[in-house]
Protein backbone atom coordinates (compact mmCIF):
# COMPACT_ATOMS: atom_id res chain seq x y z
CA UNK A 1 0.00 0.00 0.00
CA UNK A 2 1.36 3.38 -0.98
CA UNK A 3 -0.26 6.67 -0.05
CA UNK A 4 0.37 9.51 -2.47
CA UNK A 5 1.22 13.10 -1.57
CA UNK A 6 -2.38 13.95 -2.46
CA UNK A 7 -3.62 11.48 0.16
CA UNK A 8 -1.25 12.83 2.83
CA UNK A 9 -2.24 16.41 2.02
CA UNK A 10 -5.90 15.43 2.13
CA UNK A 11 -5.59 14.06 5.66
CA UNK A 12 -3.60 17.10 6.80
CA UNK A 13 -6.17 19.50 5.33
CA UNK A 14 -9.04 17.59 6.92
CA UNK A 15 -7.33 17.76 10.34
CA UNK A 16 -7.03 21.52 9.82
CA UNK A 17 -10.76 21.70 9.05
CA UNK A 18 -11.47 19.55 12.11
CA UNK A 19 -9.56 22.04 14.25
CA UNK A 20 -12.00 24.71 13.11
CA UNK A 21 -15.14 22.54 13.19
CA UNK A 22 -16.71 24.23 16.21
CA UNK A 23 -16.36 27.74 14.78
CA UNK A 24 -18.79 26.80 11.98
CA UNK A 25 -17.17 29.36 9.69
CA UNK A 26 -15.86 28.10 6.36
CA UNK A 27 -12.11 27.87 5.84
CA UNK A 28 -10.61 28.99 2.54
CA UNK A 29 -8.17 26.95 0.53
CA UNK A 30 -5.77 29.88 0.68
CA UNK A 31 -5.85 29.77 4.49
CA UNK A 32 -5.19 26.02 4.50
CA UNK A 33 -2.46 26.44 1.90
CA UNK A 34 -0.66 29.10 3.92
CA UNK A 35 -1.02 27.29 7.23
CA UNK A 36 0.11 23.88 5.96
CA UNK A 37 2.52 25.01 3.24
CA UNK A 38 0.70 23.10 0.50
CA UNK A 39 0.15 24.41 -3.02
CA UNK A 40 -3.25 26.06 -3.49
CA UNK A 41 -3.69 24.41 -6.88
CA UNK A 42 -2.92 21.00 -5.40
CA UNK A 43 -5.40 21.57 -2.56
CA UNK A 44 -8.12 22.50 -5.05
CA UNK A 45 -7.72 19.06 -6.64
CA UNK A 46 -7.83 17.39 -3.22
CA UNK A 47 -10.94 19.30 -2.13
CA UNK A 48 -12.68 18.49 -5.38
CA UNK A 49 -12.35 14.79 -4.51
CA UNK A 50 -13.33 15.33 -0.87
CA UNK A 51 -16.40 17.28 -1.95
CA UNK A 52 -17.41 14.58 -4.45
CA UNK A 53 -17.24 12.05 -1.61
CA UNK A 54 -19.40 14.34 0.55
CA UNK A 55 -16.75 14.68 3.26
CA UNK A 56 -16.73 18.47 2.96
CA UNK A 57 -19.28 21.11 2.10
CA UNK A 58 -18.31 24.13 0.03
CA UNK A 59 -19.75 27.54 0.68
CA UNK A 60 -19.57 30.00 -2.19
CA UNK A 61 -19.09 33.74 -1.98
CA UNK A 62 -16.73 36.19 -0.34
CA UNK A 63 -17.18 34.55 3.08
CA UNK A 64 -17.01 31.09 1.54
CA UNK A 65 -14.72 28.16 1.91
CA UNK A 66 -14.95 24.57 3.11
CA UNK A 67 -16.36 22.86 6.18
CA UNK A 68 -16.50 19.26 7.31
CA UNK A 69 -19.81 17.70 6.34
CA UNK A 70 -20.07 15.87 9.67
CA UNK A 71 -18.44 15.73 13.08
CA UNK A 72 -14.71 14.85 13.09
CA UNK A 73 -15.40 11.71 15.13
CA UNK A 74 -17.55 10.42 12.26
CA UNK A 75 -14.87 10.80 9.55
CA UNK A 76 -12.13 8.19 9.42
CA UNK A 77 -8.71 8.16 7.80
CA UNK A 78 -10.12 5.46 5.53
CA UNK A 79 -12.98 7.75 4.40
CA UNK A 80 -10.49 10.43 3.42
CA UNK A 81 -7.96 8.19 1.71
CA UNK A 82 -10.62 6.17 -0.12
CA UNK A 83 -11.99 9.40 -1.60
CA UNK A 84 -8.54 10.54 -2.80
CA UNK A 85 -6.56 7.41 -3.62
CA UNK A 86 -7.83 5.65 -6.73
CA UNK A 87 -6.51 2.26 -5.73
CA UNK A 88 -6.26 2.32 -1.95
CA UNK A 89 -7.29 -1.31 -1.68
CA UNK A 90 -7.50 -3.06 -4.99
CA UNK A 91 -8.02 -6.75 -5.46
CA UNK A 92 -4.86 -8.70 -6.12
CA UNK A 93 -4.82 -10.55 -9.39
CA UNK A 94 -3.94 -14.18 -9.83
CA UNK A 95 -0.26 -15.08 -9.47
CA UNK A 96 -0.49 -17.37 -12.47
CA UNK A 97 -3.28 -18.88 -14.56
CA UNK A 98 -1.87 -22.35 -13.87
CA UNK A 99 -2.16 -22.06 -10.07
CA UNK A 100 -5.95 -22.20 -9.62
CA UNK A 101 -6.16 -23.57 -6.07
CA UNK A 102 -3.02 -21.77 -4.94
CA UNK A 103 -4.38 -18.47 -6.24
CA UNK A 104 -7.55 -18.95 -4.19
CA UNK A 105 -5.59 -19.83 -1.06
CA UNK A 106 -3.22 -16.87 -1.47
CA UNK A 107 -6.16 -14.53 -1.97
CA UNK A 108 -8.06 -15.84 1.05
CA UNK A 109 -5.14 -16.35 3.47
CA UNK A 110 -2.82 -13.50 2.50
CA UNK A 111 -4.21 -10.74 0.31
CA UNK A 112 -7.77 -10.55 1.67
CA UNK A 113 -6.43 -10.63 5.25
CA UNK A 114 -4.00 -7.82 4.43
CA UNK A 115 -6.67 -5.71 2.71
CA UNK A 116 -9.03 -6.21 5.65
CA UNK A 117 -6.32 -5.25 8.14
CA UNK A 118 -5.58 -2.04 6.24
CA UNK A 119 -9.27 -1.19 6.09
CA UNK A 120 -9.80 -1.86 9.80
CA UNK A 121 -6.70 0.10 10.85
CA UNK A 122 -7.57 3.17 8.78
CA UNK A 123 -11.26 3.01 9.67
CA UNK A 124 -10.38 2.97 13.39
CA UNK A 125 -8.61 6.34 13.16
CA UNK A 126 -10.96 9.31 13.31
CA UNK A 127 -10.23 12.93 12.53
CA UNK A 128 -11.10 13.68 16.14
CA UNK A 129 -8.33 11.33 17.32
CA UNK A 130 -5.80 12.93 14.98
CA UNK A 131 -6.78 16.40 16.17
CA UNK A 132 -6.53 15.35 19.82
CA UNK A 133 -3.06 13.91 19.21
CA UNK A 134 -1.99 17.11 17.42
CA UNK A 135 -3.31 19.34 20.21
CA UNK A 136 -1.53 17.19 22.80
CA UNK A 137 1.77 17.31 20.87
CA UNK A 138 1.51 21.08 20.48
CA UNK A 139 0.76 21.61 24.18
CA UNK A 140 3.75 19.46 25.15
CA UNK A 141 5.91 21.50 22.80
CA UNK A 142 4.99 24.70 24.66
CA UNK A 143 5.88 23.39 28.13
CA UNK A 144 8.87 24.93 29.89
CA UNK A 145 10.85 23.01 32.43
CA UNK A 146 12.76 24.74 35.19
CA UNK A 147 15.50 23.11 37.19
Which characteristics define this entry?
147 residues; two-stranded antiparallel ribbon; single chain; mainly alpha
Question: How does this model look, in words?
Answer:
56% of the residues lie in helices and 5% in strands. It has six helices and two strands; from the N terminus they run H-H-H-E-E-H-H-H. The chain has helices at residues 5-19, 29-36, 40-52, 77-84, 100-123, 127-141, and strands at residues 56-59, 65-68. The protein has a two-stranded antiparallel ribbon. Helix 1 (5-19) packs across helix 3 (40-52), helix 1 (5-19) packs across helix 4 (77-84) and helix 1 crosses helix 6 (127-141). The model has no long low-confidence stretch (mean pLDDT 88).
Write the layout of secondary structure elements.
Layout: H1 5-19, H2 29-36, H3 40-52, E1 56-59, E2 65-68, H4 77-84, H5 100-123, H6 127-141
Antiparallel strand pairs: 1-2
Helix pairs in contact: 1-3, 1-4, 1-6
Can you count the beta strands?
A: 2
Mean model confidence by pLDDT: 88
Percent helix, as a range, is 55-70%
The main pleated sheet reads as:
2 strands, antiparallel
Radius of gyration: 19 Å
Order of H and E elements: HHHEEHHH
Task: Tell me the number of helical segments per DSSP (H or I, 4 or more residues long).
Answer: 6
Placed side by side, the strands forming the largest sheet appear as 1-2
Amino acid sequence: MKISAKGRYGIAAMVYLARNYDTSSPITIISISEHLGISKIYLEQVFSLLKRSKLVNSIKGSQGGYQLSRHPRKISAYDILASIELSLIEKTGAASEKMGQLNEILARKVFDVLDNSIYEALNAISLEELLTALNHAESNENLMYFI
